[in-house]
Structure formats: structure tokens, C-alpha cells
Design a protein that fits this description.
Function: Joins adenosylcobinamide-GDP and alpha-ribazole to generate adenosylcobalamin (Ado-cobalamin). Also synthesizes adenosylcobalamin 5'-phosphate from adenosylcobinamide-GDP and alpha-ribazole 5'-phosphate.
Structural class: mainly alpha
Number of strands: 0
Distance between the termini: 38 Å
Cofactor: Mg(2+)
Order of helices and strands: HHHHHHHHHHH
GO molecular function: adenosylcobinamide-GDP ribazoletransferase activity
Number of helices: 11
Shape: globular
Radius of gyration: 17 Å
Strand content: under 5%
Pfam families: CobS (PF02654)
Largest sheet: none
Helix content: over 70%
Membrane topology: Multi-pass membrane protein
Length: 242
């Protein structure tokens, strides 16, 4: 049980973990996907602690910027990179799935990637500023958790269209039955915290994004799942502060 969790922790964060994806068996890699929301909750707990420890007299905008820096550092910018690659593949592929997937392999970032990341980070910064001013810490726990739950549900319901690599293995070996049980438990728990509206918005965004990936690429990749995480995370924050 601990190995899949530590694999998920090592893959999704910069927190030191003794086991990473390269050392995992296919079964462990598949089971590690089930722990993605728990890693999201851990990220949220660390962000909550960081917000609490910030000086009370500090400007909310500066606090939001610092939270954003810590957030990116904790995750290594993993999902932002996925968003950047997905934007390049979406625009550069011009509707051709194979061309778009090939562009996403290119480590260089094009104008679409720069615009997508800049706009999303700008929106997140403003949402974080409002959230900090409100003093409600629940958003820092719910947003990262539901964002990573979005990846779990993508792997459980969507074909993985890039052959080879850890992503394909994780999606193939993930226990789908347990993934759906996990999703129901998390969504009911989030709704129980008085965030039923947030869950509905996150679900609507996830369905829209999944449909877009299916129509444009015929499935999902690691980059597309990272982009999904960022979009769901941001939609949760937007719905919460609204």
C-alpha cells in the first residue's frame, strides 16, 4: 500500500520519496493512480499551512504570488507543462490528431503554450488573492484534490493514445472499479463540506475537457491529463470564490 502512495508522491511532487515511477512494477504504477487525489490533498494541506504562516500584514496580492510560487515548486510545474504542451498540440495540430500528438512531444514551447500558461497563472493569482482575503482554507484542500481526481477519472474512462511510457502503463493497470468508488467518496465528501456547487462546476468542466480531447485527439495522454488537472483546479477555485 505504501509503495503506490510513495510512487504517486514522487511522480506528482518534488517531495522526496524513496520510490518513483522508474522503479515501480506495472501493477504498482497502476495502483499509484488511486493515490493521486491523496497527493493533491497533501499539497493542499501544505498550501494551507503556508498561508497560515504568512504575516498577517502582508498585502493579499503578494501573499497570492508567494502561494503560487510554492504551489509550482511543490509540483515541479508538472501540470503547467502539460497545459503548455496541450495548447501547442491543440493549435499547431490544426485538427490533425497525429500531428497534434507529435507537436506535444516537442520540448520547445510555442506562442499557444506561452499564452495558455500566462493566462491561467494570471487567473489563478487573482483567485488566490480573493481566497486569501476571504480567510476560508477549504479551497486549498479541495482544488488540488479534485484536480488530481480528474486525472484518475480520465485514465478510467478514456483511451490512452500515446504508446509506451509510464502513463500508458498506469492507465492500463489502474483498478477501474476502485477508481470509481474513490471518485464517488471524494465527490460526496467535497459536497458535504458545503461545496456542492463547486463539485458540479468541476464535473461540468471535466466533461467538457474530456469531450474536447476525445474529439481532437481520440483519447488522452500525460500532457492532456496534466492540462485537465490545471483546468479543473482553476474552475474549482473560480466556483469557490464566486
Amino acid at each position: 500500500m505504501w509503495r503506490p502512495f510513495l510512487i504517486a508522491l514522487g511522480l506528482l511532487t518534488r517531495i522526496p520519496a524513496p520510490w518513483r515511477g522508474a522503479l515501480a512494477t506495472p501493477r504498482e504504477l497502476g495502483h499509484s493512480v488511486l493515490f493521486y487525489p491523496l497527493v493533491g490533498a497533501l499539497i493542499g494541506a501544505l498550501l494551507t499551512l503556508f498561508v497560515i504562516l504568512l504575516p498577517t500584514g502582508l498585502d493579499a496580492g503578494i501573499k497570492a504570488a508567494l502561494v503560487g510560487i510554492v504551489w509550482v515548486w511543490l509540483t515541479g510545474g508538472l501540470h503547467l507543462e502539460g497545459l503548455a504542451d496541450s495548447a501547442d498540440g491543440w493549435v499547431g495540430g490544426l485538427g490533425d490528431a497525429s500531428r497534434g500528438l507529435e507537436i506535444m512531444r516537442d520540448p520547445r514551447s510555442g506562442p499557444a503554450a506561452l499564452m495558455a500558461v500566462t493566462l491561467l497563472v494570471l487567473l489563478k493569482w487573482n483567485l488566490a488573492r480573493v481566497a486569501i482575503a476571504s480567510g476560508d482554507p477549504a479551497i486549498w484542500l479541495i482544488a488540488p484534490t479534485l484536480g488530481r481526481l480528474g486525472i484518475v477519472l480520465l485514465f478510467a474512462t478514456t483511451p490512452y493514445v500515446r504508446a509506451g511510457g509510464m502513463g500508458e502503463t498506469a492507465a492500463r493497470e489502474m483498478p477501474r472499479g476502485w477508481a470509481f468508488v474513490l471518485a464517488v467518496g471524494i465527490l460526496l465528501g467535497a459536497g458535504g463540506f458545503g461545496s456542492g456547487w463547486v463539485v458540479l462546476v468541476a464535473g461540468a468542466v471535466w466533461l467538457t475537457v474530456r469531450r474536447a480531447w476525445m474529439r481532437r485527439f481520440g483519447g488522452v495522454t500525460g500532457d492532456l491529463s496534466g492540462a485537465t488537472c490545471e483546468l479543473v483546479e482553476t474552475s474549482v477555485m473560480l466556483a469557490w470564490v464566486w
